[in-house]
Request: fold
Amino acid sequence: MTATAQPTEISSLLRLDEGYVHSDVYTSPVIFEREIEQIFHRGWVYVGHDSEIPENGDYVLRWIGRQSVIMNRDSHGIVHLFMNRCRHRANSVCQFERGNSAFFRCAYHGWTYKDSGELVGVPYADAYEPQLAKDDFALVPAPRMSMYRGFVWGSLDPEGPSLDDHLGPSAKRAIDLFCDQSPMGEISVRAGANKTVIYANWKFQGGDGYHPPFTHQADFGSIRAARTGRTTPLLGMIKKETTLQRDLGNGHYCLDIRRMQRAPAPETPWAVEYRDAMVESYGAERAAYIMGSGGPHAILMPNIQLLNPDLRVLRPIAADEFEIVFYTAFLKGVPKEVNTARLRLTESRMGPAGSVNVDDVEMFERNQLGMQQLVDPWKYIGRGMSREHIDNDESTPAAYRYENCRVAHYADELTQRAQLRWWAAQLERP
Amino acid sequence: MQITVSSFSVTREAVEAFLFHEARCADENRYDEWFALWTEDARYWVPANIDDYDPDEHVSIIYDNRDRLEDRIGRLKSGGAWAQEPQSRMRRLISNVQIEPAEAPDECLVTSNFVLGELRRGRENTYFAQQKHRLRLTAEGLRMAEKIVILVRNNEPLHNLSFII
Reply:
């Protein structure tokens, strides 16, 4: 067994009322083990989207913390989440990232399971006296699975707060806004992914409105703006009163850029067709709001981020290593060009060869190096502490309103503090 | 060896010399010289997850036209591209060069393999790949109309590809 941090040690690493956090929170392998136990092997962890497995028999292989899990749709259309482990001698029964199969057959000794989990085949079963009770040897489901708008979460703890409790009302509103960019209110997550590894701590999840003009000085947008003689949008952003940070509760947060006043969409035939479909579905006012919002720009603990056009999924590896997979989320019911434009946006900005994410990765890794300093190990995240206040988001349409949330200036550090308050509560849970 | 490709002839030596020159520009972060090797209708594609598909239906690691390529080079030269400060040190070895005719009479298709060693901040990465060039004979010599890089690990988590792959 690996030693893990004790709850009493956690509180000594945070002085959030003064705006300080100890570097050990991000560098200690002992703390990391506690995170795996308390957050990833106990709480709700996002595993996939049901649009990834549209046909009966479809499956994808995913992770809950360090556990390999199969998310599949059985022959009756029911979605399951199984631990990827044969009940005989514990081989993994599924080897491929995705596929379609009515059965999972363990190649080691041939034990075979239906896509609904039942053990249906045991070679040479006469060796078991009196008879092998096959019902006792079905594939083990993740102790809990729950969905919201096609997003699927699993939890390895049979007890504990429901997914509803974990998300709270505001995170659901963020998911609603992400999906409602489609006139059908549905996304499709089947257009591939950019997979990245970052040699830094998984709690670096962005939501920082202070860094773009500096970290992303070389963003393509800035480069293109300089080339065409326009001012850069990034530098203007932090001055606008219409951009905020919100603590969405339970560690979730967003950079609220929904009222940033974007340039209107081009009047191409496909853009017009998209807008008309949105007006048809939601009415003119709400459609204009959704399309002008740019999506929720929300980060939901512990492992998904809804940042247009991507659904990002995080996997922790070690205190100083994590992975992010950027799935370009397609919108259902829109002209093809809308989704192709989303692909071009993911590629040019995110992923390992884009213009934005690479510099975030670089900053996170420089941060990880800096935090190894033993002299004065405290980080200061006190920006804007005095101007945090409760807000009811009254100017937003009711369907997407974040009620009773703490807000601060876009470039403050409310989001960092909100994440760490939630984090400490998870690690201190008995 | 002389290879006749439709209406124009190109030697294997000339094709390989082009590939080696392109690789050297990339290895040595000579961005302008590398960018000058492209035609106006450039297509630079690094597929993600699988090796071949419709890039309007599935995301890629890189899918650049001339404008996006220009942005890419402009960014690297801007002085603020932190993921290349300090720059990567690189060397790539090119092998298994095969040349075929292309559809256009002034073009040929060149398939080759490469292995790239990239060192940055004490971390060394190795990338194995197949590359497919569609080369066009122009007044300035051979130029890239298309380059496709099929990374062996295009479905694995990748660290920053902030250099020229």
Remarks:
- The radius of gyration of chain A is 23 Å.
